[in-house]
Amino acid sequence: MTGGRPTEVVSAAGDYTLLIILNADQRRQPEQIPPADGARRRHRVFDTSLACGLDGLDVGAESLLVAAEYCLVNPCRTVVLLGKQPRGWRQRSSP
C-alpha cells in the first residue's frame, strides 16, 4: 500500500495468505514485499497494470515471484500476491 506497510491477511478459507498492494499515486511506486511465512512462497495472482486477460490468473496458474523484496507498482494500479505452499509440500507432523 503506497504510503504505508503492506499487510498480509491469513485466509480462513484455506492455507494461504493474501497481500494486497494498492498504488493510488500518479507515479510508479516501489513497495516492499514482506517475506512469506513458513514454507509459503509468493505468487502474483492479480495485477491491473497487465493487459486484459493477463491481469488475473486462474487457480494453479499463478506467477511465482522469485526472491522478490520489492515490487514496482504502476500508477493507479493494484497488485494481489498469494502466499501458498509449494506443490507437493507436506508439513511434517510433530513427534
Walk across the major sheet and give the strand order.
1-2-7-4-5
Task: Report the mean per-residue pLDDT as an integer.
Answer: 77
Quickly name the level 1 CATH class. Answer: Mainly Beta
- Biggest pleated sheet: 5 strands, antiparallel
CATH fold-level topology: Immunoglobulin-like
Which series of helices and strands comes N to C?
A: EEEEEEE
Distance between the termini: 41 Å
Compute the gyration radius: what is it? 14 Å
Strand residue content: 35-45%
Helix content: under 10%
Count of spatially separate domains = 1
Record field, number of beta strands = 7
Low-confidence stretches: 89-95
CATH superfamily: Golgi alpha-mannosidase II
Q: What does this molecule look like?
A:
With 95 residues, the chain is an all-beta fold. The protein has a single domain, classed as Sandwich (Immunoglobulin-like). 0% of the residues lie in helices and 38% in strands. The chain has strands at 8-10, 16-23, 29-32, 41-47, 63-64, 70-73, 77-84. The strands form 2 sheets. The chain has a 5-stranded antiparallel beta sheet, with no helix packed on it. Strand 1 and strand 2 form a beta hairpin. It is globular. Mean pLDDT is 77; it is low at 89-95.
Question: How would you summarize the topology of this molecule?
Answer:
Layout: E1 8-10, E2 16-23, E3 29-32, E4 41-47, E5 63-64, E6 70-73, E7 77-84
Antiparallel strand pairs: 1-2, 2-7, 3-6, 4-5, 4-7
Short key terms for the protein model shown above:
95 residues; mainly beta; Immunoglobulin-like; 5-stranded antiparallel sheet; two-stranded antiparallel ribbon; 0% helix
